């Protein structure tokens, strides 16, 4: 896996969609990564959080998030996987209803429905999300 260049601030600012079905969390893996992530990515210049998470869900999974249902879920601060040591990720996570069936698109080469026991297959920023979902009784 190539090491990514850290941003000047040392913090990767990103957004992600949290989607649970049948007590499992939807996660994705891009070609250059060995671990699973939440569907999402970085904002385009001038883009709102809602617009960015909706665009990323469409690009990575082909689903359309319903704008009126996009709701903040959790903000995660964790080590940024694939970046040099010391780089952090600030991941603003959102839930939303959607139209369409999630399917691999763009750079995504694998999707998975994960439970809490799958933490070792996930990037560090996904761990607090899995923990919170488990605490709320939403995943096994």
Secondary-structure class: alpha+beta
- What CATH calls the topology is Nucleoside Triphosphate Pyrophosphohydrolase
Q: What is the number of E strands? A: 9
What is the helix tally? Answer: 2
* Integer-rounded radius of gyration: 14 Å
Overall average residue pLDDT: 94
- Share in β-strands: 25-35%
Helix content: 10-25%
Outline:
This protein is of the alpha+beta class.
Could you list some keywords that capture this structure?
140 residues; alpha+beta; Nucleoside Triphosphate Pyrophosphohydrolase; three-stranded antiparallel β-sheet; 2 helices; 9 strands; 16% helix
Topology, element by element:
Layout: E1 11-17, E2 20-21, E3 24-30, E4 40-41, H1 49-61, E5 64-65, E6 71-79, E7 88-95, E8 98-99, E9 108-114, H2 127-135
Parallel strand pairs: 1-7
Antiparallel strand pairs: 1-4, 2-3, 3-9, 5-8, 6-7
Task: Explain what the structure shows.
The chain is 16% helix and 33% strand. The mean pLDDT is 94. The protein is an alpha+beta fold and 140 residues long. The chain is built from two helices and nine strands; from the N terminus they run ββββαβββββα. The protein has one domain (11-133): Nucleoside Triphosphate Pyrophosphohydrolase, CATH 3.90.79.10. The strands form three sheets. Strands 4-1-7-6 form a four-stranded mixed sheet, with helices on one face. The chain has a three-stranded antiparallel sheet with strand order 2-3-9, with no helix packed on it. A hairpin with a 2-residue loop joins strand 2 and strand 3 (24-30).
């Amino acid at each position: 896996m190539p090491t990514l260049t850290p941003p000047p601030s040392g913090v990767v600012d990103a957004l992600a969609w949290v989607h649970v079905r049948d007590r499992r969390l939807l996660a994705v893996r891009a070609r250059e990564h060995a671990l699973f992530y939440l569907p999402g990515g970085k904002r385009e210049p001038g883009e709102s959080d809602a617009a960015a998470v909706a665009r990323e869900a469409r690009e990575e999974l082909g689903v359309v998030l319903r704008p009126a249902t996009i709701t903040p879920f959790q903000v995660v601060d964790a080590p940024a996987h694939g970046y040099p040591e010391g780089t952090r990720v600030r991941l603003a996570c959102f839930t939303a209803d959607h139209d369409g069936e999630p399917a691999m698109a763009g750079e995504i080469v694998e999707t998975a429905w994960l439970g809490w026991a799958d933490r070792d297959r996930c990037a560090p920023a996904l761990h607090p999300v899995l923990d919170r979902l488990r605490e709320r009784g939403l995943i096994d």
